[in-house]
Amino acid sequence: MDEEHGNVTLRLLGPVSAHLLGKPVMPSAPKQRQLLALLALHAGRVVTTQTLVEELWGDEPPRSFATTLQTYVLQLRARLGAAAGDREWARRLLETKYAGYQFNALLCDTDVAEFQLLVRSGRRAAEAGDPAATAELLGGALALWHGPAMVDVPAGRVLRAEVAALEETRLGALERRIDADLALRRHADLLEELTMLVERNPMNENFRAQLMTALYRSGRAGYALEAFRQARSVLREELGVEPGPRLRRLHQAILTGDLDAESAWLAS
Fold first, then answer.
1. What digits encode the pLDDT tens for the residues 115-146?
2. How many CA atoms lie within 13 A of 144 on its CB side?
3. ∠ CA 174-42-50, rounded to 5°
């Protein structure tokens, strides 16, 4: 961390914000917001000029795209330098590299980096068979989200793909965290959350399986079987397919009353 200026704090998991020394430094111009978001997302790695041009203009960049991009970078540096009272610091934060530009990871803190670190740690805890640590780590990762990622930044094709990948990671972390909570016998506490998740994600069979498990362990086997019937109806109507192996195995286990205590933790 820079002892004099501190780090710029960047939040991307929801509305995008940037603060330095407690002051907001997020630009208002759409192209600069895109530029900052993409650089922040890859803090510590070079974002090539080609990638930045693709994000900002797609397949139709202006003839002067190189000069225009340099202008956006200079304007962003000027904004950050003014907040820090130090232009040299801003140049060290937003570095020019041979093939593009890079945010110096030592001078910025991003919620995306923290989220990814917690998710990796949560996965390792799951692989080690530690549901308590898994639930805590992934719960912390998910708490960093405050809405759809970069919801208030105009997104080109690069950012759209990045947002989709982040959302996929978030859903995977959520599924794994719920599996860990089920292994910890927190089924009653999960019913409301899982009911909402199934309503919002009707094709997600993992959420369906988790809801069935939570219902069964809460003494509501009939509701668990009804949840399976609803899943089969939706999948047949929307996709023309039958429920997958996890749902079918779970359905059979509920019918026979032979649902293992750790089945949700182990099944996939």
1. 999 999 999 999 999 999 999 999 999 999 99
2. 27
3. 125
